[in-house]
Amino acid sequence: MDGPGSMNDRIAAFDWAMVGACPVALDLGWHFAVNATRLPGTKEQTIARYRRLLEAALGRTLGDPFWRDTESLAVLGGAMTLLWSKALALESGGDRGRAEWDWWVARLEAIA
Fold first, then answer.
1. Tens digit of pLDDT for each residue in 94-109?
2. What does the alpha-carbon distance between residue 100 and residue 76 come to, in Å, rounded to a whole number?
3. How is 48-108 classified by DSSP, letter by letter?
4. Burial class of residue 105 (count of CB atoms within 10 Å of its CB; 0-12, 13-18, 19+)
5. Element (H, E) at 44
6. Domains of the chain: which residue ranges?
7. pTM value?
8. Pairwise CA distance, residues 111 & 105, whole Å
């Protein structure tokens, strides 16, 4: 049913300023770093959905070793790009900033 607040009332925009071919990890890492507060679920749910959609688009499955490497590179890329902003959010206090920082730190420690 349509009405105020329905999906049909939302506006989406695409920024084509940085369009190019790149490893999927770059896109995923950027997405997490920029959209942390706008994800419809957890980052893990988003990763799983992204993989399903990518595999469907490619028409084949991606091996688990490849996908683990992709996730690791996504975390590294996202951290190198915008971890400074996560630190600023942490400094300003609040549970959301702490949770965001803790997610990135835990993922980076797992990679190391």
1. 888 899 899 999 999 9
2. 15
3. HHHHHHHHHHHTS---HHHHHHHHHHHHHHHHHHHHHHHHHHHHT--HHHHHHHHHHHHHH
4. middle
5. helix 43-58
6. 22-111
7. 0.74
8. 10
